[in-house]
TrEMBL record:
Subunit structure: Homodimer.
Keyword Cell cycle attached: no
Catalytic residue list: H200 (proton acceptor)
Identification of the protein by name: Malate dehydrogenase
Leader sequence residues: none
Binding site for NAD(+): G30, A31, A32, G33, G34, I35, G36, D56, N117, I140, A141, N142, M250
GO cellular component, as recorded: mitochondrion
GO biological process: malate metabolic process; tricarboxylic acid cycle
Superkingdom of source: Eukaryota
GO molecular-function terms, A-Z: L-malate dehydrogenase (NAD+) activity
Domain Lactate/malate dehydrogenase N-terminal: 25-168
Top EC class, one word: oxidoreductase
Known EC number: 1.1.1.37
Length: 340
């Protein structure tokens, strides 16, 4: 309960006025999975959510029945794995979270998931574009650097693309950064805020330690910290030893991002989260999508902030990032062109 209060404290205190003012339907696609279940649990505890719609190719009605006994006001419903079930789940949603897709096993890169997850995300995006074209779409399924462009291409092909409403969820990189830096400095991670830019895999993850409270971290310690943030996902994949990747920390990160969007949609100003969006920042270098700090608003991505002042070390990281990112993005775009 402490955790929930810490996460949703302010929102809980204002629960009545929030729900009276705004009714937010949130859909989770892949709701029965390792991420989907704890993510749905956290959303059930969020008083800003009035309807929770769960879809999966298996078990969504069961997960919904279980969550529906929790004594918070929102209504939970699980949908059958049929086209009409999916359509009903999506219709009227303000936020659609997509953790559907296979996770990594040891030795795999996120890009190795492309062959399986690209078509899963493409098909779910098609359904979302038809049933809820104005919803905010939060892509969790990997490889995020490619699955977000896949969604964009699908929406473009249907003439309903709104770049302000499509987000790759990179919050876990931010969450990890604040935790890992707090472990080095012996501080409370709640006081640590590290901006992470770029994308969501390996060297495309660029933490800007020079902009944190600890620009003094340098040398081998900086190398180790940056490496741990870039390859934090691998740490979990290895520890789970074939049984998947980060699920619980990802659920927390996804719930945090959804909460930020809901806050912004419900009128709160100054809500900023790093996230992977259709971005003007490096388009001149052929990089169409990029994660940076984004101010959220009722219209989705309200303001995309530039990377800001970085040092030589970070310029090197950024250069490596942009090269990889461009290829990952193009792969997603090409996939939809070849497999519409
Ligand atoms: N963005 C990020 O920071 C992170 C992303 N991920 C990614 O999230 C994805 C999900 O990971 P887990 O939950 O651990 O996997 P999981 O295998 O436990 O769960 C995936 C769920 O998706 C469902 N599913 C598969 N195809 C579907 C379809 N067509 N429609 C609806 N549901 C479908 C499965 O039935 C399953 O319940 C993976 O691709 C993983 O790499 C994982 C951690 C962090
Ligand atoms: O590492 C993975 O495959 C899952 C993931 O994206 C993460 O934990 O950051």
């Amino acid at each position: 309960m402490f955790f929930v209060r810490q996460m949703f404290g302010q929102a809980q205190r204002r629960a009545f006025s929030v729900s009276a003012r705004q009714s937010s339907k949130v859909a989770v696609l892949g709701a029965a999975g390792g991420i989907g279940q704890p993510l749905s649990l956290l959303l059930k505890l969020n008083p800003r959510v009035s309807q929770l719609a769960l879809y999966d190719i298996r078990l969504a009605p069961g997960v919904a029945a279980d969550l529906s006994h929790i004594n918070t006001k929102s209504v939970v419903k699980g949908y059958d794995p049929t086209p009409s079930g999916l359509r009903e789940c999506l219709t009227g949603s303000e936020i659609i979270l997509i953790p559907a897709g296979v996770p990594r096993k040891p030795g795999m890169t996120r890009d190795d998931l492309f062959n399986t997850n690209a078509s899963i995300v493409r098909d779910l995006a098609k359904a979302a574009a038809d049933a809820a074209p104005d919803a905010n779409v939060l892509v969790i399924a990997n490889p995020v650097n490619s699955t977000v462009p896949i969604c964009a291409e699908v929406y473009k092909s249907k003439g309903v693309y709104n770049p302000k409403r499509l987000f790759g969820v990179t919050t876990l990189d931010v969450v990890r950064s604040s935790r890992f830096i707090s472990e080095i400095k012996g501080t409370d991670p709640a006081d640590e805020n590290v901006t992470v830019v770029g994308g969501h895999s390996g060297v495309t993850i660029v933490p800007l330690i020079s902009q944190s409270r600890h620009p003094d971290i340098s040398g081998a310690q900086l190398d180790a910290l940056v490496n741990r943030i870039q390859f934090g996902g691998d740490e979990v994949v290895k520890a789970k030893d074939g049984a998947g990747s980060a699920t619980l920390s990802m659920a927390m990160a996804g719930a945090r991002f959804a909460e930020s969007l809901l806050k912004a949609a419900q009128g709160e100003k100054g809500v900023i989260e790093p996230t992977f969006v259709d971005s003007p920042l490096y388009k001149d270098q052929g990089v169409e999508f990029f994660a940076s700090r984004v101010e959220l608003g009722p219209e989705g991505a309200h303001n995309i902030y530039p990377v800001g002042k970085i040092n030589k070390y970070e310029e090197g990281l950024l250069e490596a990032c942009l090269g990889d990112l461009k290829k990952n993005i193009q792969k997603g775009i090409d996939f939809v062109k070849a497999n519409p």
